[in-house]
Amino acid sequence: MDLGIWDKKAIVCAGSKGLGRGCAEALAEAGVEIVLNARSADVLEATAREIAGKYGVKVTPVAADITTEDGRKAVLAAGEGADILVNNAGGPPPGLWSDWNRDDFIKALDANMLAPIAMMQAVLPTMIDRGWGRIVNITSQSVKAPIAQLGLSNSARSGLTGFVAGTSRQVAGYGVTINNMLPGIHATDRAISLDSGVMKAEGISMEEAQARRAKTIPAGRYGTSTEFGSMCAFLCSQHAGFIVGQNISLDGGAANISV
Ligand code: NAP
């Protein structure tokens, strides 16, 4: 399918690996110019080179922490005039409800709520003036089906979801769509780190931890960054202009909810 966005420019935050990279690759495959962000310059630059080489599009790496104001300024400067924004950042650590103090919550809110909101506020005026824009936020299945040990993530991502629910409806009339993608378990470094925690806590092997988790997913497997990226590119396409303010689960059926 021709996504009709070959002349667009996208900012992809936290995109040197995992789900963000999957989104960047799928957009690049559709011909989109990419401004690619992550903190570690070496991995980021290697990813940017690979994507540019594979799809023949311009990929500009910006090594910066997206949860900081300076980091966002650097990304936005390189991504000036962006038509597409993919918001993403690392997820907060798991724990028990009593583990976290105010500073832990502020850190989680900065990364998974306030940073994406600041990025949206920065790019929306240009998108609105142009009459076209696409914003996708990577959140988590925990928004619809909270995960007990991910209290920080549940809290911060619910806040972002609330902001998007209202804002997406305020900007839809200008041709700008905002939607959230809710990953369930995908085979990325984040999943390896969650499975390592289970491995240590239960005294089992990595294979056993992964097999146990896969059994909780009706699809019987982890998702891939490639299929995640394909959905992202579709949401950013010309065909998705009527999809507004949605929370789209990509979880292999793991969250047993009907809407
Ligand atoms: P990942 O494989 O660990 O990749 C994270 C990417 O984000 C890396 O490129 C990393 O590069 C970059 N990054 C992290 N913190 C950043 C920051 N502050 N500023 C800029 N870049 C940053 O993670 P993932 O699995 O793709 O997960 C992406 C998001 O989806 C996370 O918020 C995660 O919690 C959420 N999620 C994932 C799953 C899953 O199963 N994978 C499920 C539910 C939710 P640097 O470290 O070099 O910055």
From TrEMBL:
Belongs to the short-chain dehydrogenases/reductases (SDR) family. This is SDR family oxidoreductase. CDD domains: BKR_like_SDR_like (cd05344). Signal peptide: none annotated. It comes from the Bacteria. It holds the Pfam family adh_short_C2. PANTHER family: 3-OXOACYL-(ACYL-CARRIER-PROTEIN) REDUCTASE, NADPH-DEPENDENT REDUCTASE BACG. InterPro entries: NAD(P)-bd_dom_sf, SDR, SDR_fam.
